[in-house]
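Risk mitigation, structural track. In case the binding assays with 6-O-phosphono-beta-D-fructofuranose fail to produce interpretable data, a predicted complex structure has been prepared as a fallback.
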Amino acid sequence: MSRLVIVSNRTPGKSAAAGGLAVALRKTLAEREGFWFGWSGKLTDAPETRARFEDVEGLSVATIDLTRDDHQAYYAGFSNSILWPSFHLRLDLAHIDSTWYEGYRRVNQQFAQALLPLLRPDDVIWVHDYHLIPLASELRALGAGNRMGFYLHIPFPTADALYAIPHHLELMRDVSRYDLVGMQANRDVAAFTEAVENMTHTSLAGDPLQMFDFARTEVAAFPIGSDPEAFARMSVSAAATKMVKRMDRVLAGQKLVLGVDRLDYSKGLPQRVEAYEKLLANNSRLRRCVHMLQIAPPSRDSIKEYQETSDTLDAICGRVMGRFAEPDWAPLTYVKRAYGQASLAGLYRLARVALVTPLRDGMNLVAHEFIGSQNPADPGVLVLSRFAGAAEIFEDAILVNPFDTDETAEALRLALDMPLEERQSRWRSLMAAAQEHNVDDWSKSFLGRLSPPSAAAGAPTRDILYLASMA
Ligand code: F6P
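Fallback model:
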């Protein structure tokens, strides 16, 4: 079997709070020959194009450092101040600085230069996320003819949001240099298809070599998942039980309403706390009977919009405390730090309701992890945003419009009052869906499409095909 090379901005680290992507892919690579390539997490003064290998808990990981300026332009700038807000339909939060695109391309070129000497011709390359859209173009420009796949972990934007992104034509051309493009949800494939249809016959600066053509790029939805059985085990582990005991002391019989999200404006945190405020305002019987715990580890905090989201959330949580707290009762706890998976699994199992209400989200693995962690005899209820990719999978969650805080408050009340039998039957269907969309099958189905066994032996490479069609 050919080697697998996974490429992403962040590589798996040793920290307890690894992101969803690292958690999902660690297992795939552990079962196959290959390595992971990405940024080392270190900033230097001079650019570096020679990767260093290290062993991270049995995985072979190759990394390069980035210069401070390049990282600022590529990560905080183009990736997270232009692509992230635009792809999440928050054009009001996008900042356009014309120098960032050059930094974004420079880092992608640097990745390609450092990766190329490590490649064998039959390696299969799987590139992850919006930071690295141009990587296939840059590798192909250096002569790599490998099979290359790209997976977008965040939603694909609507056509007009895409057009608002500087250099979107080049980015679409870059997408067309992959053999397979995977998206989280059917919604994303539909948005992508619409954008491509609008752009057919478009060329960049009239140069035929710069034309993009998606004829040889397959685009499909591959909804990512978690490992629900692993969460079931973790939710009763020693670490989970320790966390449950700590929380149980605070709850003293109250029902737990839980939210776990990176502190990001796409997660709809202020709206969520406002919905909880409305629940308490409209249902005085619930005061002293419920407690909300929102875990929100800080994220991308060098970016102004993230600092502002954090301030807004502080203010709303303070308002709810001031309005409803009493000397012997607090309506909520708000924790700005990350916890390990086992502690979270314990909290998921303890929760009566999980509030997963992003304004827009690629998939949302918290929804999957919550379901996997439930006690089948006494499961909690998932209140889920219609605008998370997970809503296409979890029909038996209570689906809400997170912008409508009255609707979310009412969904929360329904969830808290839901009889055991209904909770059990909804959870059985949710668990079946989480099992059907587990992370193993996700990576197997993507890689099976990217490098079907029949294509491995001597098929013409993408580059040859591409150049022949241009001749
Ligand atoms: O959701 C997209 C994503 O890139 C995840 O893959 C990742 O876990 C998360 O955002 C964290 O982002 P960052 O690397 O910017 O902290």
